[in-house]
Amino acid sequence: VGKSTKIFILKSRPSGDVSADNFELIEEDLPGVKEGEIKVKTRYLSVDPYMRNRMNNVESYVSPFELESAINGNGIAEVVETKSDQFSIRDLVVGNLPWQEYSIIDSKRVEKILTDEAISSTAYLSVLGLTGLTAFFGLLDIGEPKSGETVVISAAAGAVGSIVGQIARIKGCKVIGITGGEKKCDYLKNDLLFDEAIDYKKTPNIRKELRKICPQKVDIYFDNVGGDISDGVLYMLNNKARIVLCGQISLYNLNRLSMGPRLFPQFLIRRVKMQGFIVYDYANQFLEARDQIKQWLLDGAIKYNENIIEGFENLPTAFLGLFTGGNIGKQLVKV
Amino acid sequence: VGKSTKIFILKSRPSGDVSADNFELIEEDLPGVKEGEIKVKTRYLSVDPYMRNRMNNVESYVSPFELESAINGNGIAEVVETKSDQFSIRDLVVGNLPWQEYSIIDSKRVEKILTDEAISSTAYLSVLGLTGLTAFFGLLDIGEPKSGETVVISAAAGAVGSIVGQIARIKGCKVIGITGGEKKCDYLKNDLLFDEAIDYKKTPNIRKELRKICPQKVDIYFDNVGGDISDGVLYMLNNKARIVLCGQISLYNLNRLSMGPRLFPQFLIRRVKMQGFIVYDYANQFLEARDQIKQWLLDGAIKYNENIIEGFENLPTAFLGLFTGGNIGKQLVKV
Asked: Given A223, A246, A273, which is nearest B275 (Cβ)?
């Protein structure tokens, strides 16, 4: 088993919208396992918006995917062969994995999942993984929410946004989510207990809507989307508001520069702070943060949703789905 | 003397470019001096870009000027009559003053200038006043310069920019100023010892120019102008760069929304922090900061330039001059 493996490689770099043609499924033989390495069978792979940027040949905080090489991203795998004394057969590991059914990896590059009856292993790719940690540090460290403040979140039903809103609620904030479609609005209000949800598909003027439901204006904007939706929020900021710049998914598929209103004069007179971040900046605080999130989960203070597509060959489809806004919560692929 | 006074009032709010027609010079009688008040003869008045925003009827960190009422701004005046035990005749005071030759003010609203042979009183409107303090706190608190970093400043020969660059130099940074015209470039390099000066009037592509003179990219951008010039700099930011949002003078005279490239994806992947501020946020640290700036002045580490126009009636002209970029250093009017 696992002498050869299916692999998704980057076949071409997208120009504009990413498409299934940018990926190619190939099959290759695997080499033997060397000292310090483990062979794993991939169980789950995570698809995330930031991966779109890695498909471009642009230097960023993570290096671009290489053409003709395996795509890689966060995943969970089971150890099937080991030459590392840190791992035994059947251990579950989480970390950056190639988009392969089987792979041979340096044992130092993954982390063992301590299985827990109360929490499924997939949580390590969502609420307890980089997604949850991104929500945690972005909101708490950059947003610095204070009780009674108003927090607006874009892509609020997404993997990160849905956790941000719940942490904001725990911190005593009024939480307003922006999302697309009635189903997601209901999810935010009824399941996640957001104070308000705005369906951007039915709301031509976000600014006007916010003026109505949020006369006290916005203290924290946790931005996952950028573009027109964000513009509407950015006109409604309070003095000393904070903008947590987490994603700009509405702009990732554009192959030309997008133009928008110049908002810096607004930021100036309102003394706004805007900050981009990546979750790895907080790596030395991951353990504590994960303990805190786990506690909230066990207390029922935080809920999370995973949208799991089955089948290795569906990885590109799952990834493309991120850009059409169909999913609620974290998008995973079960291999 | 001073029974009546000349007054510049706001006659109309500008739509687009501010013009002399927006001001009107009138003459009015002054009431008597009441307990706790002083009558002062204005000596110098400061004209500042932020005042343009006060001419609009828009709520900001300072309230708008009122129509048919005196313009006001920072100034130095001499006490000519006193019903306050804090001030004596001939004391010099600094503070927010109406654009009047004479005025009667609450003594608690101004501060006595302790005259000092080494430093002229006008310094309290420039390098030791709000201008110098704006440079000081914007650069040091928001910019957080570290030795060896690269600092770019727009409107670098202006009142704030020229001080920012010199403090950055004291902190061991490489300093690049953007300004208009050869004379100002020479001033920055030869008088203020900036490492580089870019003449934006002769540089159609700021980004390209920066790529040439600054391959190490930009760690701090101290922005006084906004618009196209800033766009060029913002493409050249380093990871974890800081943008100090101090002014956006290129946009103040526009009566429609200006459009520009959407740069937030850049800010995101570079983990940029951008922050607007006003100097009054640091009011409880003004004394210390002023002591530090004074020390730098006395040591010869900082130079400053004041551009003084004579004549009360020239106040509007001096103010309009801020938007044509003619002046070097601080623009004052000697009454």
From this structure: A273
pLDDT digits (tens, 9 = 90+) for B213-257: 999 999 999 999 999 999 999 999 999 999 999 999 888 777 778
Q: Any chain A CB within 8 A of the CB of B321?
A: no
User: CB distance from B62 to chain A under 8 Å?
Assistant: no
List of chain A residues whose C-beta atoms are within 8 Å of the C-beta of residue B144: none
Closest CA to A87 of A102, A72, A109: A109
* Per-residue pLDDT tens over the stretch B47-72: 998 899 899 988 777 789 999 999 99
Q: Residue A276: which of B53, B270, B278 has the nearest Cβ?
A: B270
B261 and chain A in contact, CB less than 8 A:
yes
Q: To the nearest whole percent, how much of chain A has pLDDT over 70?
A: 99
pTM (2 decimals)? Answer: 0.92
Outline where B49-129 has alpha helix (H).
50-54
Q: What is the pLDDT of residue B303?
A: 95
Establish if A275 touches chain B: CB-CB under 8 angstroms.
yes
How near does any CA of chain A get to the CA of B306, in Å? 26
Query: Residue A1: pLDDT band by 50, 70, 90 thresholds?
Result: low
Cβ <8 Å between A271 and B239: no
pLDDT at B1: 64
Rounded Cα–Cα distance for residues A111 and A100 (Å): 18
**What does DSSP say about strands A174-179 and A196-199: parallel, antiparallel, or unpaired?**
parallel
Helix/strand/coil for B68 = coil
* CA–CA distance, B266 with A61 (Å, rounded to integer): 11
Residues of A in contact with B247 (CB under 8 A): 268
Is residue A144 within 8 Å of A213, Cβ to Cβ?
no
What type of residue sits at position B163? I
Q: How far apart are CA A258 and CA A277, in angstroms?
A: 22
Pick B267's closest partner by Cβ from A61, A258, A276.
A276
Inter-helix orientation angle B206-213/B227-234, to 10°: 40
CB distance A106 to A43 below 8 Å: no
Instruction: Please state, for a pLDDT cut of 70, what percent of chain B lies above it.
Output: 99
Q: Positive or negative CA dihedral for B142, B146, B151, B157? A: positive
Q: φ and ψ at A95, to 5 degrees? A: 160, -170
Q: Please, are residues B121 and B92 in contact by the beta-carbon 8 Å criterion?
A: yes
CA distance to partner chain B, nearest, from residue A170 (Å)? 26
Q: What's A202's DSSP letter?
A: G
* Amino acid code (one letter) for B34: K
pLDDT tens for each residue of A100-141: 999 999 999 999 998 777 788 999 999 999 999 999 999 999
Radius of gyration of chain B (CA): 20
Give the span between the Cα atoms of A92 and A278, in whole angstroms.
Answer: 26
Q: What number of CA atoms fall less than 13 Å from residue B170's CA on the CB side?
A: 19
Q: Nearest 5°: phi and psi at A220?
A: -135, 130
Put simply, whether B259 touches A (Cβ < 8 Å) is yes
**Conformational region of residue B208, where left means phi above 0, alpha means psi within -120 to 50, and beta covers everything else:** alpha
Q: What are phi and psi of A213, to 5 degrees?
A: -90, -5
Q: How confident is the model at residue A76 (pLDDT cuts 50, 70, 90)?
A: very high
Instruction: Determine contact: A56 vs chain B, CB below 8 A.
Output: no
- Strand A237-245 and strand A218-223: the pairing is parallel
Q: Which of B197, B210, B206 is nearest to B226 (CA)?
A: B206
Contact: B268, A248; criterion CB under 8 Å: yes
Q: Which amino acid is at B158?
A: G
| Helices within A247-314 (DSSP H only) | 249-252, 264-269, 286-299
